[in-house]
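Now for one protein, fold included:
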Amino acid sequence: MAQLLATADVFMQLLPRKGILAIAAVIDIALHARGRPVAAKALATRHRLPPRHLEPVLQALVRHGILKGIRGPRGGYELAREQHRITADEILRAAGTVDDLDAKPVNGSNLLDQVVIPALSEAEQAFAAALSRINIEELARSAEGVRKGAEA
């Protein structure tokens, strides 16, 4: 993930850090659950974050049916449904990182209303469609390949 962020910094970063972390957390859970929940503390440790930064994101993912929260001493998080049915776009929306995309600027000028917003809206729709084609199953498979390559 550090490599992803380092590479993303070179380009105009379209996704907020919170959204990238939400996607990484879901992939991490897909890789590590193996029949038992993944503890938030373990997730935070792997991503070098204080648990309090990750917990609100995980709770949002639970509220949107992407993750399932398991309470108790051996609790944690697991995927709420099959990996191939969870998309990057859905995770970003659940994490609350695209809430402002639908909001119109207050007191928009003719230039904003007739030129800028329609052009950017079209680009945002194309970006959301591309993100909808990326599912956790594919990302977990890629991550598994990277992990195996690092162990070799």
In short: The longest strand covers residues 67-70.
